[in-house]
């Protein structure tokens, strides 16, 4: 999670700096709860400082399938520094740690996500969940627009994990490493429309 001064970037309002051997595979599967909801058995972690969102989001994603290493180990693999994690480092680490998966980068150009961007994210994220894998997102959240809070006074670059979906409401479950590291008011998980998630990814992207 990296903050910068506010700029003129705007959001499309819809519906409301980034491989080792894999570990043993765990016998885990997505679970259905409420009608339409499918959620991976991830283990939530909160980032211990403002620049470890990348390693923490990757650890949460890995936990759906394998037992992740410690955050310092992942930070070393990702090249994380006090300035954060570079976008291009995430997919190689996820792929290197998951023997049966090949993660790819998806950059969303421009400052707004289109409906086509949202539809593609929905297709990929839900397919990932159905096959036991999480999706990692790199968000750009403008000042005053952080979900379930809105108290950010500057733009925030941040990594989060998609670990579930609700087909009845076309929402995605976001495991947010920030938690109380950012503010006491922030929950560990958000249920957000896919359009909103895609919009947060605009100008950055995701790893699927």
Task: Give your account of this protein's structure.
With 208 residues, the chain is α+β, with helices and mostly antiparallel strands. It has one domain: Cathepsin B, Chain A (Alpha-Beta Complex), CATH 3.90.70. It has five helices and nine strands; from the N terminus they run βββαααβαββββαβ. Strands 1, 2, 3, 4, 5, 6, 7, 8 and 9 form a nine-stranded antiparallel sheet that branches. A hairpin with a 4-residue loop joins strand 6 and strand 7. It is globular, with a radius of gyration of 16 Å.
Number of strands: 9
> Based on CA inertia axes, which overall geometry fits?
globular
State the helicity in percent bands: 10-25%
N-to-C series of helices and strands: EEEHHHEHEEEEHE
Residue share in β-strands:
15-25%
What's the rounded overall pLDDT mean?
A: 87
- Our count of domains comes out at 1
Radius of gyration: 16 Å
Total helical segments: 5
| CATH fold descriptor | Cathepsin B, Chain A
Low-confidence stretches: 3-28
- Write down the CATH class: Alpha Beta
N→C terminal distance? 20 Å
CATH H level, superfamily name: Cysteine proteinases
Q: Structural class of the helices, strands and pairings?
A: alpha+beta
Q: CATH architecture, please?
A: Alpha-Beta Complex
The largest sheet is: 9 strands, antiparallel
């Amino acid at each position: 999670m990296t903050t910068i001064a506010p700029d003129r970037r705007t959001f499309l309002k819809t519906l409301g700096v980034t491989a080792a051997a894999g570990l043993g595979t765990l016998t885990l599967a997505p679970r259905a709860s409420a009608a339409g909801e499918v959620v991976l058995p991830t283990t939530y972690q909160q980032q211990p400082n403002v620049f470890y969102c990348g390693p923490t989001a990757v650890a949460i994603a890995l936990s759906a399938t394998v037992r992740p290493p410690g955050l310092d180990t992942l930070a070393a693999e990702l090249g994380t520094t006090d300035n954060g994690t570079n976008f291009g480092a995430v997919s190689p680490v996820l792929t290197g740690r998951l023997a049966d998966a090949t993660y790819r980068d998806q950059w969303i150009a421009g400052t707004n996500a289109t409906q086509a961007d949202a539809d593609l994210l929905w297709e990929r994220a839900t397919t990932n969940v159905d096959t036991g894998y999480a999706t990692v997102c790199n968000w750009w959240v403008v000042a005053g627009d952080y979900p379930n809070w809105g108290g950010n006074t500057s733009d925030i670059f941040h990594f989060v994990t998609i670990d579930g979906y609700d087909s009845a409401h076309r929402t995605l479950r976001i495991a947010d490493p920030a938690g109380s590291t950012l503010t006491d008011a922030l929950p560990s998980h958000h249920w957000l429309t896919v359009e909103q998630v895609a919009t947060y990814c605009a100008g950055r992207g995701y790893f699927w």
